[in-house]
Write a structure and sequence with these properties.
The protein is of the alpha/beta class and 367 residues long. It has two domains: 128 residues, Aspartate Aminotransferase, domain 1 (Alpha-Beta Complex), CATH 3.90.1150.10; 220 residues, Aspartate Aminotransferase, domain 2. Helix content is 38%, strand content 15%. The chain has a seven-stranded mixed β-sheet with strand order 2-8-7-6-5-3-4, with helices on both faces. It has a four-stranded antiparallel β-sheet with strand order 9-10-13-12. The chain has a two-stranded parallel sheet with strand order 1-11. The longest helix has 24 residues. It is globular and about 55 Å long.
């Protein structure tokens, strides 16, 4: 009998399956808990807007029919809100799919993709799938080292991924830094800014990547409805890019890649500015509360521009994560994110944050 591995593409044989964070179901089954607080996946703890729920209910009766595969209504709304032509917009089944589509469209075997050493893992996974070579540049002070990235570019470099704010560190590179970086960049290298958490940023120095696209730089901005808009389970992502880039991506995008319910819920979400403003305000309040309370416990909290915190537990992060889960609080261990000694925690509702602080206060960190 033929071994299936002998038939598989060589480039994927050493890939590991994506390991998601601990789920409600796993904790409930393992520890017999019903009251569980999940702060591990950077979702909006306030959920979707009421307008999104109404759209979901309204369009659920039409799921036997394919959606408009051009998603014209959503593209036109995004175009108006962001002052870019509809031809500069591409939609994906989450921004994860757009990462894969970019590499499927542009990366040839053996070409290089540059990322940070500690960042979103899908860049490496998708690059390896396409038989590319990943080049990792170490972060500096938990932030992308743009000069280090420039130094790593070779004639074989095709694409650069910059997660901004960076997951899992929450740090940003600034507009001025990015402008200088782009001005030194070879014109044949595409820079992808993964801005999944951009709506949470309060810094006035955050890059205006859409302006760089308008100016003709080879820049892509990826965004999502999974975070601020609370639609993670419906998988809707979108990207802004030069028309020439979008046209090539469309060659590899499968038909109807965004489902009907996700499409309509995303469209409705854009009109509910009350919900988004409320979510951002609550996130900012929770950020301040958690930083103050966790520092009282002797823990170090890294500065963040996102909806999560990176916390130095000064010890075994896997053990701390396990102890928190036993107390019904799910967080993400740094060891699974490439940064031992830390945990990543989503900023939750007030009651979620209080429960986290209480659980941490009961843990003996001398492991």
């Amino acid at each position: 009998m033929v071994l299936m591995e002998s038939l598989a593409r060589r480039s994927i044989l050493n890939l590991n399956k994506y390991v998601q964070g601990t789920t409600f179901e796993q904790v409930k089954k393992q520890y017999n808990l019903d009251n569980i607080t999940k702060l591990s996946s950077n979702e909006n703890p306030h959920g979707p807007s009421e307008r999104a729920f109404k759209a979901i209910e309204e369009h659920s009766k039409n799921v036997s029919v394919y959606p408009d595969g051009s998603y014209q209504d959503l593209k036109e709304r995004l175009s108006k809100l962001n002052n870019l032509d509809v031809n500069n917009i591409v939609l994906g089944n989450g921004s994860d799919e757009l990462i894969k589509l970019l590499l499927a469209a542009f990366l040839n075997p053996g070409e290089k993709v540059i990322t940070a050493d500690i960042t979103f893992s899908v860049y490496k996974h998708a690059c390896t799938m396409m038989d590319g070579e990943i080049v990792k540049v170490p972060l500096k002070n938990f932030t992308h080292d743009l000069n280090g990235i420039l130094d790593a570019i070779t004639p074989n470099t095709k694409m650069i991924f910059i997660c901004n704010p960076n997951n899992p560190t929450g740090t940003i590179v600034t507009h001025e830094q990015v402008q200088s970086f782009l001005d030194k960049l070879p014109s044949e290298v595409i820079v992808v800014f993964d801005e999944a958490y951009c709506e949470y940023v309060s810094s006035p120095n955050f890059p205006n990547t859409l302006e760089f696209i308008r100016q003709g730089y080879p820049v892509v901005s990826l965004r999502t409805f999974s975070k601020l808009y609370g639609l993670a389970g419906l998988r809707v992502g979108y990207g802004f890019a030069p028309k020439e880039v979008v046209d090539i991506i469309e060659k590899v995008r499968v038909p109807f890649n965004v489902n009907l319910i996700g499409y309509k819920a995303a469209l409705a979400s854009l009109d509910d500015t009350f919900h988004t403003k409320f979510s951002i305000k609550e996130n900012n309040n929770g950020k301040v509360y958690l930083k103050n309370e966790l520092e009282k416990l002797g823990l170090e909290v890294e500065p963040t521009e996102a909806n999560f915190l990176l916390i130095n537990v000064k010890g075994d992060d896997l053990k701390v994560t396990e102890e928190l889960i036993k107390r019904g609080v799910i967080v993400r261990s740094g060891s699974h994110l490439g940064i031992k000694g830390y945990i990543r925690v989503t900023i939750g509702r007030r009651e979620d944050n209080e429960r986290l602080v209480e659980a941490l206060s009961k843990i003996n960190f001398q492991f």
